[in-house]
What does this fold into?
Amino acid sequence: MVGRAGRAGLDTSGESILVTQAADREKIADIIGGSFENCTSSLLYEDGKGLQAFLLSTIGLKVTNSRQQVSQLLQHTLMAVQSKLLEIDLHVKLNTALHSLLEAGLLTEDNDHLEVTKLGRATFKGSVAIGISAKLYTQLAHAQQALHLGTYLHLLYLATPYDALTAVHVDWMTYYNQLSCLSAEELQAAELIGVTESYVIRKASVASTAAAVDDLTVKRLYVTLMLYGLWKQQTVWDVAARFKTSRGFLQNLLTSAASFASSILFFCQELDEFWAYQDLLGNFVKKLSYCVNMDLIALMEIPGVKQGRARQLFTAGYKSFQQIAHAAPDDLVKKVKFMPYKVARYIVASAKLLVTEKADALREEADNLVAMPTASASTGVEDTALELSDWSQNSKAPSLTADSQSQGSAVTS
It folds into this structure.
C-alpha cells in the first residue's frame, strides 16, 4: 500500500518515494514497469498435494462428506475457474486425489460417505504435510519403543524438519568432530537414532562401511547437531562457522524446527497411542520456540521482550511477568542498563495486560466450573448443580486484588 490509500475514508491514492543506488535503477525499473505475474491455483502443487490437503481438511471439518459435495465445493475454487487455462479435468483430478488419500489410510469411504481416519485427523489437525504423515507416524512409533530422555538430542532429532535436509551437504570431518564432543548419554541417544560413532569415523576416513545405515537418518542427525548447538545457547555465528553454513540457514532451521515440533504435538494429541509425546512435547516446544533457558520463558511471554531483554530483566532480579507488572518504569530504568524510559513503560504496560488476560481466563474457568450444566442426566445431578449454584451465589469469594492479598498477609502475620 502507498501512503494512506489503503485506509478507508482517508484517501483513494498516495505517493511513494523509492531511494535506490545507481546500480539498482535498471532492476527497479524492470520490477515497476514489467508485466504482472500470473496468479494460478496452488491446489496442484507437488503433483496434487495441495488438492489432497484441501480435501482432507474439508472432509475432516465436516464441510463435505461425499464425492458429490466435494465436487460441488471444488467448482468454487480458483482451480475450477482456471481449468481450461491449465488444461485439466476436474473430475479426474478429484478422483485421483481421493484415491491417494484412501490408499494412504487418511480417508475411509462407505456407501459414498467419506470420513477421515485417526491418522487423517491427526494429519490435518497438526498441519502435517500429507506426503510425510505416514513416515512421521512410523518414526514416532519406532522412537517410542526406545526414546532416550537423558538428553534432549533424541527429541530434537524428531523435531528436525525433513525439508531442511535438501539444502545440507554433510562434511564428515565436521560430523566426527561434533560427535566427539558429545557426552556418553548423547552418544547413546545417537546410537538409538541409528548413527554410531564408528560409522562416522569410517566415512570421515573414506573407508568402506559394512553396516547398513539409512542415509536420510545420518543426514537428519547432522542437521540435528546444528539445532543442538543452538539449543545449548551457542551463538548462531559459532554454529555457522563450525558447520560451514550460513547464519540465515540456521535461523530458518530454528524457526521451521519450532513450527514442526508444534505440528508434531498437535499430531500426537489426536492419537491415543502417542500419549507419552503429548506430555513430553509441551514444554519442549515452548523452549525450542524461544531457544533459551526455561527461566527466561516466563519473561519472554511479555509482548516485545526478546531473549536479550529477558536476560537483562532476569539478571536485574525480575523472574516473572507478574513482577514486571507490579514494577514501576523508573525502577526498571535504574536496574537495567541502557533501558530507555519509554521502553520500560511499554514493557510494564504489556506485562499488566498479560496479567489481566490470564486473570480473566482463570475467572472464566472458575465460573464454568461452578456453573449449573445446561443439560442433566438425572435428578441427582440437577440437585448437585443447584447446590453448587447456590453456593457460588451465597459465598463471597475473596477478591483477586493486591489490596486483598496484602490484607490476607497482615492477618496471617
Summary: The chain is about 65% helix and 0% strand. Residues 341-370 form the longest helix (30 residues).
